[in-house]
Amino acid sequence: MPTQHHVTTCRNFYAGAWHGTSGNRIERHNPATAELVAVAPRSSADDVGQAVAAAVAAFRSWRRTLPVERSQHLHELARASAERVDDMAAAITREQGKPLDEARGEVRKFITALHYYAEEAQRVFGRTIPNDSPGFTSIVEKEPIGPVAGIVPWNYPIELIGWKLAGATAAGCTIVIKPSEYTPGCAQVLSECVESTFPPGVVNFVYGDGSTGQALVAHPAIAKVAFTGSMRTGQAIFRTVSGITGLSLELGGSCPMIVTDRADIPAAVAGAARRSFRNAGQICIAINRIYVQEGVYDEFVDGLAAAADALKVADGLRVPSADVGALTMAETYQRTLDHIADARAHGAAVVAGGGPVDDLSPGLFLRPTVVADAPDAALVMHEETFGPLVGVAPFADLDDAIGRANSAPGGLAAYAYTNDTHETFTLARELDFGNVAVNNVDAGIINAPYGGRRESGFGSEHGHEGLESYLQLKHIRLRHGAQ
Ligand code: NAD
Fold it and tell me: Has this prediction a pTM greater than 0.90?
């Protein structure tokens, strides 16, 4: 078992080497124990400039590499990472809080993404287009867009880096990654895997907080910003980047679930418990609010309350198989408590959980909490909590439930349970979200596009689209004279 007292020292990694910083440093403490677990540079604009310069220099040759060559580097990074699964997972648990088994699962999914994009790199095709005069042919080629800035949050600190790193480098782009200030240590382990598997300057890391991120997205040599994080920061970046920088925004939202009278209720309960409380609810596609048809409402609420009460909450390093670990940030811990208090004030009933796990203090542990009969006005029913809390409310008419599901800000993912074909297609088509999962709660798979709508942002990761977003088109019009 990994020790609790390990402190990871992170250093910026660019141009194939590690570097100190001219700024001061960030300290990260374990949210389960409050112990210091990582120190990292709080990089200045000057540090950012040097990392971007490395990415710009490497782009000149990386853009010309053959897809098969880029593929080999990605497979090699996957193999190097596979040898460090335990190190990376332990670093995630120490600074992010999710139980160790879950952290290992995240690293394995990251490795799968690397292999997937290694293969997808070789499936980029252009077109030829007939012209309306003889002797001409138009060719459309796809070229890498340029050096990319990848800015990521802390909830899936390795996987979210992975989608950007893999998609960008597979396309022939270079990248500067700014990990979250809450999870620098796992990125340091990843950079050590990059060092032995990629040419210098192709994949670079700079540590720091929002000001470092701001310097990176505003840098004029950055051709595209790939951002995952909160709506607030996404909106700030939208205003910061110059109009000629490519941009994808994967932001938060409030994700609904609809359960009809025709659903398999035990399956719906199991799905709701998993997608509301996994990673302590700190998932952009976590179920935040559930609308249940009147005929099955009581059965569903009783089942979900029992399922939530059965979840084991523990320090994820000591109990690797725990269901729920510590929350990552004091801010989300407090927001969850505030949303519970607000739901109570709106007349909702707390039917499971409701507060901290006292014997795990000072760790940021909360019991998985279900509030029933939550009115639309309660914060939990329209604002992202990002903690282990879900609100449940009854409905009579399916169109009304769909309208309520569509009414909160954001359009990332929605879930539905029904065994009726007409209801299935109605829900799949009318829910205004980038991802709709019916009779399952795993809305994202690596080979299908994943992205949000409205306030949840734009652009796709995963799938071929997650690679195309790093490419730009070029029309080449040839006059060759052949008839
Ligand atoms: P955040 O927006 O606070 O921070 C995300 C990253 O942006 C961090 O690296 C941070 O240092 C950096 N940053 C902060 N201010 C910046 C600025 N002005 N310019 C550039 N970079 C800046 O988000 P968070 O609290 O780390 O993550 C939680 C949020 O992320 C939730 O809202 C969640 O829904 C969202 N999220 C979305 C997805 C998705 O795929 N749509 C996935 C995971 C998380």
Answer: yes
